[in-house]
Amino acid sequence: MENNSNNGVIYQGKIPNRVKYCFAFGALGKDLIYGMIATFSMIYFTDIIKVAPAFIGSMFFVAKLWDAFNDLFMGMIVDNTRSRWGKFVPWLVIGTLINAFVCRRKCQPAGTPAPIYVHPKLRCPAY
After folding, report:
1. Could you report how far apart the first and last alpha carbons of the chain are, in Å?
2. What contacts 125, CB < 8 A, 6 or more positions away?
3. How far is CA 92 from CA 8, 18, 54, 78, 96, in A?
4. Are 38 and 60 in contact (CB under 8 A)?
5. DSSP notation for 3-72
6. CA pair distance 42, 17, nearest whole angstrom
7. Residue 121 vs residues 19, 26, 86, 104: alpha-carbon distances, Å
8. How many CB atoms lie within 10 A of CB 45?
9. Residue 13 CA from chain centroid, whole number
10. According to the model, what pLDDT value does residue 111 have?
11. Among candidates 23, 60, 22, which has minimal Cα distance to 39?
């Protein structure tokens, strides 16, 4: 197995554990945020808004199913990206900026005007 990276390092055979751990810890922050939002959303929808738990579970399942297929297509797009920053860096920047904007708008105080409409029940109730 041969792996190429942007800095010209080529690994022959087994990938070092250091590289594997760096990739794992890189995804840790994203996964922790998703876990917190999913847990909060599940409790909020079922206990506060009183939506049927089966419906909410189905909604989460469909979202994960969409994510599974979307990852394949995004992988093809990333593989075909050619930029001076490499294949993946432009998509990391775009995704980070979009996520920051959405998270900020979702957890915005209720009285503050927003360029997009977010239903008050879907905003963070902590504000």
Report:
1. 51
2. 44, 48
3. 20, 22, 34, 10, 6
4. yes
5. EE-TT--EEESSPPHHHHHHHHHHHHHHHHHHHHHHHHHHHIIIIIS---HHHHHHHHHHHHHHHHHHHH
6. 35
7. 42, 32, 40, 15
8. 19
9. 31
10. 66
11. 60
Structure token pair of residue 91:
């998509």
User: What does the block give as tokens for 120?
Assistant: 């008050």
Q: What is the pLDDT along the chain (127 residues), one digit of tens a residue?
A: 444 555 556 667 888 888 888 777 877 877 888 888 888 888 988 999 888 999 988 988 998 899 899 989 988 988 888 888 888 888 888 888 887 787 777 776 666 665 555 555 555 554 4
This model's pTM is above 0.70: no
Contact, 108 vs 123, CB < 8 A? yes
| Single-letter amino acid code for the residue at 90 | P
pLDDT at residue 100 in the model: 79
Q: How long is the chain?
A: 127
Residue 59 tokens read as 């909604």
